[in-house]
Structures are given as C-alpha cells and as structure tokens.
C-alpha cells in the first residue's frame, strides 16, 4: 500500500532504501566521491565535488566523470518508478558535452521521460556549479531495461 | 617531415608524445588506474584493470568506467590524425552496453571512422577480458571537435 | 537592427522567410506532405498528416517519417538562432521511438537547448495526434553545424 | 530444421519471405522508391535511387531519406536472426551524417553487431553511389526489440 502521508513526487521509504543501498554498493560512485543528493519519484540528483582526480587534460571535470554520474542518476530515476524488487540495467545512452565542466561541483539530474513495462527513457542533464552560477555542461538521453524481480 | 622508417599505421613520435602527455594530465585516468595500451594512426587502446573501486552495484565494471575509457580512447584516436598542435574536444557520444562487464580488465578501442577538418567520427568498442575470453561489452559512436593550434 | 515590435520569441521576418524558403526547397518534405506549422525563435513545429504512403508494416507512421520531420524541425529551430546568411547542417541525431505512431497527424517539435558559435544542440519531440489525444511517440537529441555566410 | 544446402550467411527461405512481406507492407519504402537489395543472415541492404522528391534544400538526399532506409535495413537485419514468428521494433537509433549524400542512389547496410533475447544492436551505414564512387555518407547504431510470436 502506498503511504498516504507522502507528497505526489515523494518515493516510498522502501524505494528510497533500495536506491540508497544500490548506490552504496557502487564502488565507482564512492571512488569518484559522488553523493546521492535528491531522490523523488522519477527524478534523482547526484552531486560530485571537484577533485584533481576527476580531471581531463585541461583541469576540468573529465567527460567520463560527468557521464558516470549522469548514467547513475538516470538509472536510479528509473528504479524509483519500477515495480518493487526490480533491478535496472542501462541499455544505452547518448550525451552531448555542451560546455567545459568547471566549478566546485557537478550536479547530474536524471528524469524519467517515459516509462514502459520493459524499457524506460530518461533525460540526463549535468550542471557545473561555480559560486552562484549553474551552467548546463552536458545533456543526454538514456534507455533503461527493467529486470523484474526473480520469483 | 614524416619518418620514412615508420609503418603506415605508426604515428610520428611527436604525435605519440602529444597523446602520452595529454593522457598523463588526465587525473581521472590515473584515478581509475587506466593505461594507454596501444597507439597507432587513427586507433588507440586503453586498458583498465579490475578494482573494487570501479564497480556498479553487482560487482561488475560500472558503465561509467567503460564509458570513461571509451571516450578517452576515441578522443586520442582522433588526436593522432589531427594537424600538429590541435586539441580535441568530445562533442557527444552514444554507447550501448551489450553485456555485463566482468573480467580481469577492460580494453577500450577507439577507431577513427571518418575525419574531417572540424569534426571527426570514431567507433568505440569495449571488451572485457577474463582469462582467454574477450567479450564485447560496449559499443558506441563518438563525434570529436578539432580545436586548431592557437597561432 | 531587430524589429522593436516583435515579441521575445518572435523571429525577424527575414529569418522566417529564410526558413520558409529552405523548407519549400526540401523535396522530401513536400513528398511526405509535411507542413511548417509554427516558427518562433529557437523552436519550430512541423506537422505531417497521415497517409498510407507513410506507414511501416503495421500501418503506423514509419520511424523514418517521424525522424525526417524531427530532423527538419530541429534543423530549422537552429537556423532561427543562427547569424543572418548562415546555413545549417545536421551533424548527428539520436531518437528513441517510445510509442506506436498512430493518429491523424504527427507533430515534430524542434527546440534549441544550447546554441554555440559552431555547434548547436536541439531537443526533438514527436507527438501523434488522434482526436483530442496527443501522445509523445519519439524523443531525441540533435547536433547541428552552423555554416557561416560566404563572404 | 535448417536447410543443409544453404551457405552460413544465407537465410532460410521463410525468413527471406518474412522480410520481403514486411518490407512490401511498408508504405513509406514504396513511396520513397526503396528496394530490398540484399538479404543475408544478420545483414540487409536497401537501395534508394535518386529522385527530386527525396532532397533537402541543396538538392542532396535528405537526412530523413538516408535515415529511413538505414532504420529499415537495421530492423530487417535484426529480423533475420530473430526466432520464427517474431516481430521487430526499433527502440532507438543514432546516426551521424558524415558527408553530403549526392549520387545516383543510396545504399543502406544494416548489420547485427550483437543479438540478445530481447534486445539486438545493429550497425547502420549509408553509402552514396555516384558512377564508380561509393562514399560513406552516414553511420549509425541502432537498438532493436524482438517481439516474440503470440502464442
């Protein structure tokens, strides 16, 4: 039964727990220093503070860092709308790197565009935050596969 | 002048040096533990040994790790065919994750499909190597921008 | 000089004329029966009425028809924000077909996400309209190249 | 039982019939003037002769025409490796337009890269043929969905 006290976009506490557990098991997210920043139904935000260990050759965030948190944000956004017990796999994604990714941290936003029984499509956006400025640095589109719970 | 002793697909030593220098400046490649494994004209291979710090929630290599080395392999493949002094930017890429990425190491192969004055298109392939088995785990396509040398 | 009587999102009459002229020269748009339906700064809508000549094997609109109008809508959306005299080339696009495209007509919406000097990124959406229902059937992302006016 | 007289890449006659029947039902392919040119296991070629009705604003083949035949070539390449009675849906594709598409005809080649139970990934290539010259004008990657036979 869904929780009658939660807001429309709020996720059930078991969904939140499922996402947090899975995120905590991703060695790469810890290794990069990424944090799960926001979690609502169909939308997840991951934050990644700047470190020299995340750069490309000019000292900006590497596209691989932006992409890694974008992919995870989209994947977990999908997981919030999947049936209980499901797992999520990324089928594919496409990402445009539209500006140099410089700033104190990155914020990747994954948002479900359309959710089907097997496949779900998400929008991916990555912003670089420098002081009070928030610049779109990457935008993408992702296809997810919902792996049903094993019975 | 091009070196008359090199093979057709061999890169000039200054091109090789340019790629190795740029790779060495990528904080993320070192942080992941990636190595530049092969370098020829229009083709670069990057190798990434397994570590728990590179995993997704099921213990396989994270798509973000596969993508990061695929993006770098393609970018450097492009750089080998660019005019001297140019830099490379990734405009966008698309990647399909076609099998679980498990094994002792990953190998990302970036190959130039078509090179233009401003834009270059590369094929990206990532293989997982486990003992004597080599499995295609990701395949993609990437658009690069050639930033000419500043005069 | 920009026209002081036009709305913020309105395009100058010469931009509108440039888009309409180019659209009229596209043999394929006429052959498919597509019409330029809306035109504002950074956003273009193309409408495509149903015909048996546009179908795939199950009688729905063919993905090729959806894609063709999506690509043109994005390209012209880009052209509305390019400097006078520029031309537009599609570098690449990616499109997800998220629902069967059935209805009386399709509507492709191209919207500029970020515009640079050389490259511009657009969002592509295609809706199928059946009576009062409007269903998202495709969503994509496109990279455009701005070819400057020949001097 | 598979036919012992056929070559490794030859398709069973029922598979060939299934592809030809489906192609013949695609109103758009006939409307564009496209022909099924080659058909082997995991690889399909579609040919599209030049007509003024297929052009973009500069008189070359419209990207929408290239994409439509590329999408169909990939889809049917997938269908040749699917279990009997299956149908094929395009999940998404990405295509780079790498050269102006001018010539007497286009040739779209769809090739299966990796085939899974539910999802299959194809490479898409489009060549423009002008006299004895054959130029790569588009290259892409496509994800297909195998819809099992209804029991």
UniProtKB/TrEMBL annotation, chains A, B, C, D:
Protein name from the UniProt record = Medium/long-chain acyl-CoA thioesterase YigI
- Superkingdom, according to UniProt? Bacteria
User: A single GO molecular function, which one?
Assistant: fatty acyl-CoA hydrolase activity
What is this enzyme's EC?
A: 3.1.2.20
> Transmembrane region positions?
none
Alphabetically list the UniProt keywords: Hydrolase
| Pfam (any one) | 4HBT
């Amino acid at each position: 039964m869904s929780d009658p006290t939660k807001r429309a976009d709020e996720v059930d506490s078991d969904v939140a727990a499922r996402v947090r557990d899975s995120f905590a098991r991703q060695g790469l997210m810890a290794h990069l220093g990424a944090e799960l920043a926001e979690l609502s139904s169909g939308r997840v935000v991951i934050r990644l503070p700047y470190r020299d260990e995340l750069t490309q050759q000019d000292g900006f965030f590497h596209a691989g860092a932006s992409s890694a948190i974008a992919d995870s944000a989209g994947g977990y956004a999908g997981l919030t709308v999947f049936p209980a017990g499901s797992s999520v796999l990324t089928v594919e994604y496409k990402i445009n790197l539209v500006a140099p990714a410089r700033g104190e941290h990155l914020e990747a936003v994954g948002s479900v565009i359309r959710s089907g029984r097997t496949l779900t499509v998400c929008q991916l956006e990555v912003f670089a935050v420098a002081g009070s400025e928030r610049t779109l640095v990457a935008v993408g589109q992702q296809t997810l596969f919902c792996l049903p719970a094993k019975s």
